[in-house]
Design a protein that fits this description.
single chain, 287 residues, 6-stranded mixed β-sheet, 3-stranded mixed β-sheet, 10 helices, 42% helix, 14% strand, Nucleotide-diphospho-sugar transferase
């Protein structure tokens, strides 16, 4: 939540609870932040629950962050990516794309049902200058605030006691008045967004991999491949070495000095590891 209107004309927001989605967000934020730095986009990454008590209720964060920006007078584009979503192609010309969407209120992936109200809000783009967007955001927040705190507290799991999630609330907004507020929504194919193999905005949904550990591993692998393919700079080299040393059963260095240079170059890292392993495997000196 902000107190000042962003200086940039595009804001990309991710948020998650600090229990179940901490690790996915830590993974996807890496490449999403690179995308934002490359295109002068304001990047916000929020860990925690804005309203509610249980981890899943962080899903409502997107409602409040969107309405917060509109309330500050922001008239640019708001991009929301779930914790399990990432920008696959950081070179995508987002400004050229959005220039062609000025008459659109919001952008979602086209769902298999073909129903205009049937949207997945794990990834969406919102034109905060459009009157329909402002109306949707206000109605969406009213729906969220219509859920009492007692109801939220009594719902530790998704859909307990029929408590609606963020997506249910948004779909309800779009269903009203003969789907009037969908008139200026743009629907993109899954090849563009919302799938693990999308060209621009990717997401690996719970329905596509129900095992949390396997899902995290797949997200890490796909994001890692995208980072490598686009030759993005490595991050946290000292921490990466420490993790590698633990995996190999090597002693952790007593000091960080010099580790960054060692990890930054393949040849230096290989020579350092070979030397360390040789010393560890050498028989103890006879007294």
């Amino acid at each position: 939540m902000r107190l000042s209107k962003p200086g940039q004309d595009i804001v990309l927001v991710q948020s998650a609870d600090s229990v179940n989605y901490f690790s996915p967000l830590r993974t996807t934020s890496r490449i999403n932040r690179e995308f934002c730095l490359k295109h002068d986009i304001d990047y916000t990454c929020h860990h925690g629950i804005i309203r509610g008590f249980h981890p899943w209720q962080a899903c409502y964060n997107r409602i409040y962050t969107l309405q917060n920006l509109i309330g500050l007078g922001f008239t640019g584009w708001y991009i929301h990516l779930d914790a399990d979503a990432w920008v696959h192609n950081t070179n995508f010309d987002i400004r050229a794309y959005l220039a062609g969407c000025a008459d659109n209120s919001m952008i979602f992936a086209k769902m298999a049902s073909g129903q205009k109200w049937d949207v997945n809000d794990g990834i969406f783009l919102a034109n905060c200058a459009h009157p329909d967007t402002r109306e949707v955001a206000a109605a969406w927040q009213r729906g969220a605030e219509g859920i009492s705190e007692d109801s939220l507290r009594a719902a530790p799991n998704w859909y307990d006691n029929h408590v609606p999630c963020d997506q249910n609330l948004l779909q309800n907004v779009f269903r009203r008045d003969d789907e009037r507020l969908t008139a200026h929504v743009r629907y993109e194919p899954i090849s563009f967004m919302n799938a693990p193999t999308s060209d621009v905005f990717c997401q690996l949904l719970r329905a596509q991999q129900t095992d949390p550990a396997k899902r995290l591993g797949q997200i890490q692998h796909r994001v890692g491949m995208a980072i490598a393919r686009q030759k993005l700079p490595p991050e946290d080299p000292v921490l990466h070495y420490c993790n590698l040393a633990r995996t190999l059963g090597l002693p952790l260095p007593r000091e960080a000095e010099g580790l960054g240079e060692i990890v930054a170059h393949r040849k230096a890292l290989v020579e350092f590891l070979r030397k360390t392993l040789t010393e560890l495997e050498a028989p103890p000196a006879k007294s």
